[in-house]
Every structure is written in structure tokens, then in C-alpha cells.
Amino acid sequence: MKSGAVVGLVIAGVLVLGVGGAVAVSLSNGDESDTVAVTTPSPAETEMAVDDVSDDDTSEDSADESTSEPAADSVTPGAYVEYSEAALASAEGTPVLFFHATWCPQCRALDEDIRGSGVPDGITILKVDYDSNQDLRQQYGVTQQTTLVELDSAGNALTTFIPYEDPSLDFALAGLGLTG
Fold first, then answer.
1. Are 110 and 163 in contact (CB under 8 A)?
2. Disulfide-capable partner of 119 in 69, 78, 100, 104 (CB 3.0 to 4.6 Å)?
3. pTM (2 decimals)?
4. Cα(33)–Cα(127) distance, rounded to whole angstroms?
């Protein structure tokens, strides 16, 4: 592939990511409950990508050396995302369901603390709408909003905790046994 074509592809990729991020932010209408993460390469990364391709590289089937599996002992960064089956399936680390109701002051306080504190590495908190997910409430035996449920890799409940009297992330994670 010629370097001019590669430069064009890199620039197109940067533009797509930038436009996609702008669209995602505009679609959220300032609603803080939507989490948008957009990553664009730095100019140095873009230059490295262009420099790594030589003019005489004609093999389009060559393996991409930059793609590698994370080390088995690496820790995944913490995440706080809206619940969906796809988000649960792709959750990295320990998945925790947070049954949240917009009308609940304790839920709003915990949500704010999670956003302010950030989720520790190795944990993914999935925010479940308490009112519209009766099937999940029944599946996990949730009878009160502000309930957190730690799941195993198969989606089975391991621990349930309700940090109603102290809606803070530290208290919630301690109640689930997820703090050291």
C-alpha cells in the first residue's frame, strides 16, 4: 500500500472518530447519565502509524503486529456504563449491577459518587434502570432500589448489598467485599 493512501486512511480515521464523538455528545443532550468515551490518536501516534508503513510493503495480508492480547496478569481499568445485555457480555473485570431509580435520592447520591470517584480497576459497574428492568430485579431477587449485585463470569449473583444508609462507592464496594 502506498504511503499516500495510508496517510489518507489515517486522516479519515481521525476524522471519523472526531465526528462520531461529537455526534455522541450532541445526542446525549447534556444528560449526565450517558457515558461517552472517544479515543483519538495523538499526532505522534499518527506519525508512528505512517512511519511504520514502507512504500515497498505490498502484502495486504501481513499480520498486524500492533494487535496483541493483554497480559493475563494485567488489570482492566474500572468502568461505569449503562446496562445492556451487550454491555454485560463485554464487561471486563468483576461485573456489578447497580439498580438505580432516577427518583431515589440515595441512588442519585451513589451515582454522583461513582462518577466523582471513578470505578477502581478490575470492576465494571452496570447501571440498571430499577423501574424498567423488572425481569432483572426478579432474576437477582432485588426488592429495593440502590441495590448492588456482584456477578460471576457466568452472570450468577455472588454478593448483594444495599448501601442505602451510606450511598458512597467506598461503602458499597466494602459491602460487596470488593475492597482490599
1. yes
2. 78
3. 0.59
4. 9
